[in-house]
Amino acid sequence: MPELPEVETVMRGLRARLEGRVLARVRVGRPDLRWPFPAGLGQRLTGARVTGFRRRAKYILMRLDRGESLLLHLGMSGRMLIAPEQAGDPALHEHLSLHTDDGWRVGFVDPRRFGSVDLVPTEAEDAHKLLAGLGPEPLEAAFDAVALSAALRGRNTPIKAALLDQRTVAGLGNIYVCEALFRARLSPQRGADSVAGARAGRLVPAIKAVLTDAIAAGGSSLRDYVQPDGELGYFQHAWQVYGRAGETCGAACPGPPGCVGIRRIVQSGRSSFYCPRRQR
DNA sequence: CAAGAATCCTGTCAGC
DNA sequence: TGCTGACAGGATTCTT
């Protein structure tokens, strides 16, 4: 999926186009993504004014002036399309289309349909079932070495799996976990418990830095993903290990002799990329 | 309770 | 060119 930096980028794009606008017309396409759409979604959105946006983990919350917020998750392949009204027919796999009072269409496109859409009372957003169990936001001050250590201590799983677990810290996905572990020089196979303490002191700034850098770059453009305005994020050019099996890990690495290059392994069914020489 | 596997779905790409 | 299998940003649900 779009991970935290991509979701943040999408949320900002939606805010720029939708904040203050009225949803003059709503088209519901196929009404079942991961779960069925909430009852009466179209009517509950139509005529509402968009008052603001918020991101929590990989979720987007679009607040309406009727006391409800639209909760969006992009899954693996979800993206938001923003186009002038006259641009015509819904795109392939466009499951929800919001038409604004100033002539724009915002579409939720998701071929794999792992994404989700729900409505939640605005005053109780964080009590939503999907948000209630999430760990801390990685870019907030409360996410520090002490907090991460507490979350990792005693856990009998690789650090890679622990960081993908959204209860540990919310918003990381496969790419940015790989990149953060590289920056912190920690092997994805290292036990989570052994990262609690001093190593968490290295890992927390690495996580914050990679996310901050990626947001500044407009996220990474993946196969199925572009920013809402159609621009391409360019952080994928800054990946140091993800998708680079066999390459050397860059200028910081002395390279041969003894360099085996970036290795791809599979952990809990997902690819991990790391440099066995630099990451321990 | 915790950890790993299976699962949902469509599209793309490498290899034959 | 067409077929097949592996793989893809996620996270819940099911098994162990």
Search tags:
single chain; 280 residues; alpha+beta; 4-stranded antiparallel sheet; 10 strands; DNA-binding
Task: Give a written overview of the molecule.
The protein is an alpha+beta fold and 280 residues long. The chain contains seven helices and ten strands. It has helices at residues 4-18, 41-45, 129-132, 145-152, 159-164, 174-183, 198-216; strands spanning 23-28, 50-56, 59-64, 68-73, 79-84, 94-100, 104-109, 116-121, 263-267, 270-274. The strands form three sheets. Strands 1-6-7-5 form a four-stranded antiparallel β-sheet. Strands 2-3-4-8 form a four-stranded antiparallel β-sheet, with helices on one face. A two-stranded antiparallel sheet has the order 9-10. Helix 1 packs parallel to helix 7, helix 4 (145-152) crosses helix 7 (198-216) and helix 6 (174-183) crosses helix 7. It starts with a helix and ends in a 6-residue tail after the last strand. It binds a DNA duplex (16 and 16 nucleotides) through residues 1-3, 6, 34, 58, 73-78, 93, 110-115, 130, 155-157, 161, 164-166, 173-176, 220, 222-225, 268-271.
